[in-house]
Amino acid sequence: MQPSPPLLSPEVADALAEGGPVVALESTLLAHGLPRPDNRAAADEIEAAVRAGGAVPATIAVLDGVPHVGLTPEQVDRVCADPSLAKLGVRDLPIAAALGLSGATTVSSTALLAEAGGIPLFATGGLGGVHREAGETFDESADLTALSRTSLMVVCAGVKSILDVPATLERLESLSVTVVGYRTTTFPGFYVADSGSTLDWSVETPEQAAAVLISRRALTPGAVVLANPLPADEQLDRDLHDRVIADALAAAEAAGVRGKAVTPFVLDHLHRASEGATLEVNVRLVLRNAELAGRVAAALAVVPPRR
Ligand code: PSU
Ligand code: MN
User: Fold this and answer.
1) Which atom of ligand 1 is the closest one to the Cα of 129?
2) Handedness of CA 8, 11, 16, 21 (dihedral sign)
3) Cβ(143) to ligand 1 under 6 A?
């Protein structure tokens, strides 16, 4: 059986047909990264941020076995409300397709479906990566290998700071994923502006970012990560950050959480332990990434990429 090609919403299909700017958005951060019911309002705000940047948003999810690129408000309701919605990485897509199941897409599967749909820009919060203790658990997000194969730009605030950030940067290097900072060579730390790691390269404008993506696409398959830090005055308090993350990782360990449940468990624990402070910062950084991705998509649409 052939998997169904992604189904583009009319607005997304029209924009792409005209060579217009479109930004893909993932749904796992809505369904598994943000608590219900706050996630529903965040979904609308994220799409509005893409529009404010000058592009059409294309939120991606699998519904009844069909990958959708661009969701109706009712479909977004479904993604945000269903507590049993699956979390689908690339390897889960064939199961969902064959069995007619529904699920939210992670960075890995969203990147794949966005590329299949012809969308060169993708905005998220923070990438998955190498978990602390990965030397023992082998827990490394499939986001990394997926980005080594998909030709698009992901705008993010670095990788989630619950991870081993230097190890994740090493893996991104091994996988030849291009990483560039937006107006900084400090690699952002998701909730905080500075992860403690540095980058070799930065770009100053959406036009420069678009030019990097065009060059990458002409070279060889693989993604460009555009790392967009929060401004210092919008980041999470550093002490609170370090304390709640240590606490959340210990709680995950104590509860014996494994596999793809780890990231949602830890994020949920952080939102509770910080009394909503991580939630607020998480939404804010996604909005900033969505708007910047919209600007880069708009710059790219002026100089269409080589196909
Ligand atoms: N960014 C966020 N919140 C999230 C995620 C990213 O701000 O919930 C999700 C993404 O979908 C990413 C996933 O692909 O977490 C990584 O999960 P794992 O560590 O299990 O690969
Ligand atoms: Mn994992």
Assistant:
1) 19
2) negative
3) yes
pLDDT in tens, 3-46: 567 999 999 999 999 999 999 999 999 999 999 999 999 999 99
Q: Which tens digit of pLDDT belongs to each residue from 190-202?
A: 999 999 999 999 9
Cα separation values, 246 from 24, 266, 273, Å? 32, 10, 11
**Angle, vertex CA 122, rays to CA 248 and CA 142, nearest 5:** 50
- pLDDT tens digit sequence for 209-258: 999 999 999 999 999 999 999 999 999 999 999 999 999 999 999 999 99
Measured by CA distance, the residue closest to atom 11 of ligand 1 is 106
Distance 57 CA to ligand 2 centre (A): 27
pTM of this prediction? Answer: 0.96
Cα angle for residues 179, 280, 268 (degrees, 5° grid): 85
The DSSP secondary structure of 10-61, one letter per residue, reads HHHHHHHHTT--EEEE-SHIIIIIS-TTHHHHHHHHHHHHHHHHTSEEEEEE
Q: How far is CA 64 from CA 87, 96, 164, in A?
A: 14, 8, 35
Q: Which ligand is nearest to the CA of 266?
A: 1
- 3-class SS at 195? strand
Residue 6's closest CA among 110, 142, 121? 110
Active-site residue list = 26, 160
DSSP state of 1: -
